[in-house]
Amino acid sequence: KKPSYRGTNGMPRQGDDERTLHVGVTEGDVAQRIVTCGTEERARAVAASFDGGIIEREISSARGFLTLTGNCNGVPVSVVATGMGVAMMDFMVREVVAVLPAVSVSDDDEPTAARALIVRFGTCGSIREDVPAGTVVVCSPGSTMVRRQPDAFCMHGPQACAYHVCNVVPSDGALSRAVEGELKTALGAHSVVAALNVSGCSFYSSQGRQDGSFEDGHELGDPIAMVRAAHPDAASCEMETFHLLDVARCARPYGRAVRASAAAIVVAHRPSGDVLSGETIERLERLGGAAILRALAATPLEMPAAADATAAP
Ligand code: R1P
Ligand code: URA
Question: Ligand 1 center to residue 203 CA distance, Å?
Fold first, then answer.
């Protein structure tokens, strides 16, 4: 029988062991260092690099999340597959943080250690001529977001520019540097680029793909051209990183309880139309995943000096 849940106006929990409603985790299930990715296949490719290839805990939720926990160089790590989009990232960060130990604070109420270090390892399109398919982009400068504005479509066609480009949210500086360093060692420096990410609210409309079946308002403003005009350095274009960084900066206390960054494999070069082979994607998932686990394991939970905490916007 389906158990009812408690706490609907806060963080609802379900069942005798108090699992969160969507990710399905409880205290002890998740490590404080987390790699998150879109697919279960990639999550398993990353977990193959756990010490001894051993998955110590595996939780599969009815809502499509998969949480695998093991160790990297003796340090506990988890990999969480979320599926796609902002809502899934929001569930993941909030529910995983809910089951992790509270942030430790000093006598004067400053956090002394993070609750979670989270790195997204995704796939993306590249919107930059000079960043080809096969590159791995680390969002060291942070991420912006391009959103479709539903109010522009309320008459019989788009009324005004239908897209909004958000301000940049920074990534965690120390974590981004660690990820960049390990990826360069694993893949070669020429394959790794540090650049601004842009998350679209859709794979289609806000990523500027042409779909004749829908009115997307591109004739009144091409969303990718708008991103390029506002942020000429933006390279990777995917769907979750902005929200990960946004919700991490809002984690209490002081926006430093959750420290986050992201790396994404360029599977499609939008300016040329080049796409990556399945074999190459699998190789990059395996090698890149192992590198990101090492970066997380080597990054202390203790707070870096304030000047080091975030990358410059
Ligand atoms: C779209 O194909 C999906 O691929 C990218 C996008 O962010 C979106 O989720 O990332 P993942 O491969 O991690 O899912
Ligand atoms: N994921 C995206 O969101 N966009 C791309 O172009 C490729 C992967």
Answer: 8
Amino acid at 267: V
Domain that holds residue 233: 23-308
Task: Identify which of 80, 94, 103 has the alpha carbon closest to the alpha carbon of residue 31.
Answer: 80
Q: What share of the chain is helix, strand, coil (3-state, %, to 5)?
A: 30, 25, 45
Q: Taking all residues of the chain, what is their mean pLDDT, rounded to a whole number?
A: 94
Q: What is the CATH number of the domain that holds 133?
A: 3.40.50.1580
Domain membership of residue 161 (yes or no) is yes
Domains: count for the chain: 1
The stretch 4-15 carries a mean pLDDT of 95
pLDDT of residue 313: 38
Whether 311 is in the pocket of ligand 1, judged by its Cβ within 6 Å, is no
Whether 17 maps to a domain, the answer reads no
Question: Ligand 1 centroid to 52 CA: how many Å?
Answer: 28
- Provide the pLDDT for residue 305: 67
The answer to whether residue 199 sits within a structural domain is yes
Q: Which is more confident, 165 or 103?
A: 165
